[in-house]
């Protein structure tokens, strides 16, 4: 499984979000970095086929997106930056409903994800009574549901405490074989401890793509 991006550009009115982005993605875990407004969310949304670029092309497994959207979406898990689940639903109800929509026949996935992310004790509690971190963890669980080969996670650890972050990355490590996981973050420890590859965007351009350990050599003084 691979993703290719060539000359990808996207603007919102006069605001340029992405400028001629060229990237190649192979299976593994990749951190997407950059200041607010650098284009991270737009790039993830384009990769998830939720935002149509103005220019450029994307390929999934060697096939252009425009000819492969059904397959892409069936193999993609996406975590948006903002979550707004119905307050009367519970994490278990949401995951079981999404599992039905995804035609997931394997039993036990919902219970496994709830347990792995520390949500078992609140699985049947309405979202209106959950903390922001617990809601975020449920959003992460739905992205992993169905064992997608492509995971696109926007602000993965936003609002999570240290223990919750550890659970998330433990799940990602167990699930990483043969998968591509791209996540955006502002937390340097997450990048340094859990990924070997990083991409840095600035004003819609890629200013670094390579090994995490080389980031400070290529961009001296860079702050996550």
Automatic annotation (TrEMBL):
Keywords: ATP-binding, Nucleotide-binding, Transport. SMART domains: AAA. One of its GO terms (molecular function) is ATP binding. It comes from the Bacteria. SUPFAM superfamilies: P-loop containing nucleoside triphosphate hydrolases. It holds the Pfam family ABC_tran. Residues 3-224 form the ABC transporter domain. Belongs to the ABC transporter superfamily. This is ABC transporter domain-containing protein. It comes from Levilinea saccharolytica.
């Amino acid at each position: 499984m691979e993703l290719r991006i060539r000359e990808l550009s996207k603007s919102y009115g006069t605001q340029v979000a992405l400028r001629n982005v060229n990237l190649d993605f192979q299976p593994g875990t990749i951190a997407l970095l950059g200041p607010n407004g650098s284009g991270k969310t737009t790039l993830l949304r384009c990769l998830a086929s939720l935002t149509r670029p103005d220019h450029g092309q994307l390929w999934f497994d060697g096939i252009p997106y425009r000819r492969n959207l059904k397959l892409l979406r069936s193999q993609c898990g996406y975590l948006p930056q903002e979550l707004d689940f119905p307050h009367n639903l519970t994490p278990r109800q949401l995951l079981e409903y999404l599992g039905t929509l995804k035609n997931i026949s394997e039993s036990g996935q919902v219970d496994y994800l709830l347990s792995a992310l520390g949500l078992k004790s609140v699985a049947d509690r309405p979202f209106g009574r959950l903390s922001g971190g617990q809601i975020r963890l449920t959003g992460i669980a739905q992205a992993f549901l169905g064992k997608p080969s492509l995971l696109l996670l926007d602000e993965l650890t936003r609002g999570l405490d240290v223990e919750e972050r550890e659970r998330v990355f433990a799940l990602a490590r167990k699930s990483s074989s043969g998968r591509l996981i791209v996540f955006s973050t502002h937390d340097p420890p997450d990048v340094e401890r859990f990924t070997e590859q990083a991409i840095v965007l600035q004003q819609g351009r890629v200013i670094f793509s390579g090994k995490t350990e080389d980031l400070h050599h290529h961009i001296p003084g860079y702050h996550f």
